[in-house]
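Appendix C: a fully annotated inverse folding record. The material below is reproduced so that readers can follow the format used throughout the book. The structure is listed first as tokens, followed by the designed sequence.
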């Protein structure tokens, strides 16, 4: 190697070292997004990734601008969301109004959308399921709810599998459903087993050993307690 080549190599090495030092000393980057990522009434979101490469989120009923039972939004990056319609334009027969806190899962090629809603013939809420082959719907609701309860005791469904990532589809296999029950001032979480294709409850609800009476929730904008 000649003296000129050595000088060039030395300059390149110094540049690489200096660049590395700058990279090490550079301040950390801030987040690539700013909350809220959606400035619209969109309570209780449930998100799923579909085969088309998009994420879909489903929320409690909201006006876009007319009232939709279960608004569905689509995003490529979980930050920029576009409203694409009402996932449940036709309510199941057991529902009167107040469609709250949807939860979405996929079983094979079918999307299951669990909802809590006010039921006919009662002042209370119930939990039911609607299905569709498309993440945007329209979802078709089952004619009867999975679980019923007085007042606000059967709301906010969340479904998970007891067998890892595989949701059971055959008769006899079971999945696990979580739901929140609110009785007076005591807010308690209950567990219920779901049967074939997770469309029917099996056995009785079991109270989870969680006492949430002392939990308090605050509005992030005002700092005032919500409940």
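Designed amino acids, in order:
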């Amino acid at each position: 190697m000649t003296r000129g080549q050595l000088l060039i190599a030395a300059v390149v090495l110094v540049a690489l070292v200096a660049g590395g030092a700058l990279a090490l000393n550079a301040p950390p980057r801030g987040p690539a997004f700013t909350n809220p990522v959606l400035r619209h009434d969109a309570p209780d979101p449930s998100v799923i990734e579909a085969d088309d490469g998009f994420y879909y989120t489903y929320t409690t009923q909201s006006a876009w601008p007319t009232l939709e039972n279960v608004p569905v939004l689509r995003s490529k990056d979980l930050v920029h969301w576009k409203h694409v319609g009402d996932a449940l334009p036709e309510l199941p027969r057991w529902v009167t109004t107040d469609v709250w806190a949807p939860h979405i899962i996929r079983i094979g090629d079918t999307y299951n959308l669990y909802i809590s809603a006010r039921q006919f013939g009662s002042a209370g809420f119930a939990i039911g399921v609607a299905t569709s082959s498309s993440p945007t719907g329209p979802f078709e609701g089952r004619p009867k709810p999975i679980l019923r309860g007085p007042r606000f005791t059967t709301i906010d469904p969340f479904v998970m599998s007891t067998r890892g990532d595989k949701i059971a589809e055959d008769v006899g296999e079971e999945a696990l459903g979580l739901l929140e029950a609110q009785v007076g001032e005591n807010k308690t979480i209950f567990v219920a087993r779901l049967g074939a294709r997770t469309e029917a409850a099996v056995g009785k609800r079991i109270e989870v050993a969680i006492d949430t009476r002392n939990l308090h929730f605050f509005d992030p904008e005002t700092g005032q307690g919500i409940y």
